[in-house]
Amino acid sequence: MKTNVFIRPLHFGVHSREFGCNLKPMSASLLTLTMLAMLAPQESVGQNHGARSQGTPEGSYLRAADFRVATIVHRLATRGTAFCDATHPVTGFLLHHLDEYAHADRAEAVRRFGLDKGAGVLAVVAGSAAAQAGLAAGDLLLSINGVQLPRSGEPSKSSARDHRKVAEEADALIEQQMRGRSATLEVSRMGEPISIVLKPVIGCAARGRLARSSQANAFADGRYAIMTTKMLEFVQNDDELAVVMAHEIAHNLLAHPARLEAQKVPHGILRGIGKNASRVRSTEEEADRLALKLLWSAGYDLGAAIPFWRRLYTRYDPIPVPKLFRTHPSLSARERLIRDTIGQLSRSEAGTR
Q1: Which runs of E-coded beta strand occur in 10-98?
Q2: pTM listed for this prediction
Q3: 170 in the same domain as 56
């Protein structure tokens, strides 16, 4: 994914190189929920930060936005397994790493969170495997099954290219160590070492990130569903937030980025012409259908989907584009698909009573 590239506001769907995040890597955190599922925006240290967690005994967090989105993706991942073939261990905790902070903020991140000693637990979803095991926001995760987690570089030395490397390596290690078994986590809590045995549940392979950006956008890169902080501001409630994340998660579960690459669908302006546009549009329709099934399984309000899309199209796509050049369905086409899919789900539910 390129950085410092303009995001077109209404780019929902699979990631293309031209639609990278408009963010500076060292001042924007792309944190990963190690379910592995969802996200977190980078705020400057000192803005709603603190080394002591907030929340209930069932869940905890250092930043409320992270906790909110993590909770939604955890719910989608754990309740949608009937509709996804790709599964993985779901733990329900979110990490942050020193490399993900701006250079100017790292000394303060070390002071507050001790991130020079290990990966910090940023949020723990209520009711998740991590919460039940006793993991808490503010803990430092040092190793899993005796294998040390990747460590961030010295506070002043790691480069912009490194800011996601440690986080992604940690994600991969945690998933590997927890696949099909419980795991022993070595944790530092307020300077005291403790061991926690965590037994993950199996859920959809719903991984995600929240990128700090002034552009309202969301896309899928084949592994992560990525949403910008501006989009987080745009959604009006958790049901709409779930609509966005379910759509991008669906792209990854359906392997759309790999399919389009295999079909040699180009990036840039040629992506929106002829068969290329049709192929991309097909993935959008498939993602919409699967997203609604995930939302239905998770108990979200499917009635939030059409009002959300109407607001988004009105704000960011007010001028209709001929179908030949559209990579995404028109609003009317999207609404028809949503109504049809909701009808199918309703009939399916009625048939099981």
Answers
A1: 12-14, 60-61, 87-90, 93-96
A2: 0.82
A3: yes
